[in-house]
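Pasting as-is:
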Amino acid sequence: MADAIIFGSLLYSHILPPIMAFIGIILLCSGVMDNKRNYTLAGIAIFFGAGLLPFLILPLVIGS
């Protein structure tokens, strides 16, 4: 059980946020350069979601 908590906390604190932030920045830059508002808004949402993900998910995974 402890291994699942450690893997879950690592996944949601160190693995997914950087991947999501990178995708968000790519979408943001692509949207700005190509004048595509949908890409820009999606990039902003994914980037901020990456920043908030650990604070929303980790309390549920750890149980505190």
